[in-house]
Structure formats: structure tokens, C-alpha cells
Amino acid sequence: MKRLAILGASGHGKVVADAAELSGWDEIVFFDDSWPECTHNSIWPVVGNTEGLLASLDTFAGVAIAIGNNTIRLNKLNVLREQGIALPAIIHPQATVSCYAKIGEGSIICAGVVVNVDACIGAGVILNTGCSVDHDCLLAAAVHISPGARLAGGVKVEQSAWVGIGAVVRQLLTVGAFSVVGAGAVVTKDVPAGAVVVGNPARPLNKS
Questions:
Q1: CB 179 within 8 A of CB 159
Q2: Considering its fold, how many domains does the chain have in total?
Q3: CATH number for 139
Q4: Active-site residues: which are they?
């Protein structure tokens, strides 16, 4: 029996559990630091907190991390990697992923996602519902591409960047580390590391 532990009993966690079940995992349980107050996430049980997960890793074939915050997700991934547990990519069966794409450990690919030839997806990446990652894109660790976002060919998204829902990034551009591309933004120039850009065309957010 293939048992999967999911760390993070959130709405996103439900999506991960659903994709995992559809892709062949036999038993799925959650761990979350809100336990024991939280005992279920939809139909799936929450059986412990992070400490409980670390104490029971040998009972699972793999662990998925369902935490939306990019920095926290990467930190948890690194802790689990040090424990030697398998961190499988969870790929919804209704995603379209080229056999010539590379998918990093612990990544989550949701329903309706398209990943095209020679794209390279790093560890702990979230490709959320219905987004597309075109040929030769390079996504570093802990990136989040939100529902309906579009990356044209050859886009580079650096560590822990977040591309918001429905955003579009033109071909061959770079979205810098820890940056945020706002919902519906149209990116026509490189996004500097740590920047927040919004609008069409995307411009830095005025923080005044």
C-alpha cells in the first residue's frame, strides 16, 4: 500500500490530496500544526503535527508539502530532505506534462496545467490550476505559478517568486527571486528580485 503524508491541512492541501488520490496513492493523511483542534481536511484525516510527522516518516512512502507560503514550503522541504524521505512530485492526471520536461521533487502540478517540452521545474514548485509553462522555461525552487497564469517560452522564474492569478509573462524574460507579479499583470520587462509589479504593462507597485 502506498501511504502519503501531506504537511499542511489547507484548501490547497485538499487539492493536493485529490490529485494524489487520482494519481494512485492508496492512503492519504494530513499533518498540520493546528492539530488536535483540526481533525479533518475534507474527507482526509489530520493525524498529527509536524513533530508527529517527523516521528513517523518510516510509515509513509512519501511526503507532500501543501503550504502556500514559498519560504516556509522550501524550509519544510529542506528539513524533510535531510531525513531521507521521498518527496514525490504530485501530478494531477488531467495535467499535460511533456515527457521532455523535468519536474523537481516535491512539486505540485494541478489539474489543467500544461508544461511543455524542455521546461525545467525546480523543487517544491506549485503549478496551480490551469496555468501554462511553455517550452524552455526554467523555474527555480519554491516558485508558485497561480491559476490561469501564462509563461511564454524561455521565461526564467527565480527562487520563491510568485506569479499571480491570470498573469502573463512575455517570452525570454526573468522574474526575479522573491518577487510578486500581481493578478492579471502583463509582464513585458524583466522583474527585479524582490519587486512587486502590477498592471498592463506591469510596473512596480507604488508603496507610498
A1: no
A2: 2
A3: 2.160.10.10
A4: 135
